[in-house]
Amino acid sequence: MDDFKSVRLFSRTCLQCGKPSKYCCPKCSARSCSLPCVKQHKKIGECDGVRDKTAYIPLDGFTDLDLLSDYRFLEESARIIDSACRTKPALGVYPQQKTLPGFLHKFQAECRRRGIMLKLLPRCFTKRQENKSWYNFRERCIYWHVAWVFPAANIKVHESQRVHEKESLAKCLEKHLTLETCRPELRGPLQPYIAAGMQGISILLAVEGKPGADKCYYNLDLSVSLEACLKGKVVVEYPTFTVVLTEDLSHFNLISPEPSGSHGGTNLPAFFNTDGLAGCDNE
């Protein structure tokens, strides 16, 4: 949900029905007027309503309550780390087995051959469990699990079917921005995007390994294939694209794509090292 915070919604009306709002979501600041609208927001936006304890706060807005919250967060983190060390095998990280399963090793190797630096997580991570991407040995191609984030609507949409690597971004996204093919429950929240059309949007891809305060994005070409737009970039499990209205593009820190074969030297956490990911199963 971090991508939703790039565009703040200052409206005092309910995001779901348009009536005057009474409540504000602690996590994404979405406005709601009643319990049914709150539940609908959580369902459509995949938002749990829990305040993000790691959200960036400017120094001039930092208070004693924020300091206390950070202190408690560090204490909780230390407890969780200690608990994880005691239950490593249950988390899918086995020190005695330091090789990936064959199908994951092949999938990662094929991504590397295409110039894509694929990073896999331990199977306890939600993103690992969501990932349905796989390499088709018969067709010798990759089918990607793809997710779309719509900041102006506070929605994250996962593709119901895997996307062929040769399919263009525009073709893949078009079904979500057309009234005839858009899922009924998404037509209302996605109305600004549907009205803008493919000409009024941009597709961004977050640069992995950047701190939250320094988060930046690649501005992608809608006409290129999925394989082409991921080449030279780091992908954690599966690509998550941010769909932005043209007028909101200034809210995002954009950078130029790295040269082919370069992965930008992103500084990823140690657990992205695939040596410790044995036991990951195909989803």
Automatic annotation (TrEMBL):
Residues 14-47 form the HIT-type domain. InterPro entries: BCD1, BCD1_alpha/beta, Znf_HIT. Pfam families: BCD1, zf-HIT. CDD domains: zf-HIT_BCD1. The keyword Zinc applies. GO terms for biological process: box C/D snoRNP assembly; maturation of LSU-rRNA from tricistronic rRNA transcript (SSU-rRNA, 5.8S rRNA, LSU-rRNA); snoRNA localization. GO terms for molecular function: zinc ion binding. Keywords: Metal-binding, Phosphoprotein, Zinc, Zinc-finger. GO terms for cellular component: nucleus; pre-snoRNP complex. It comes from the Eukaryota. Belongs to the BCD1 family. Required for box C/D snoRNAs accumulation involved in snoRNA processing, snoRNA transport to the nucleolus and ribosome biogenesis. PANTHER family: BOX C_D SNORNA PROTEIN 1, BOX C_D SNORNA PROTEIN 1-RELATED. This is HIT-type domain-containing protein.
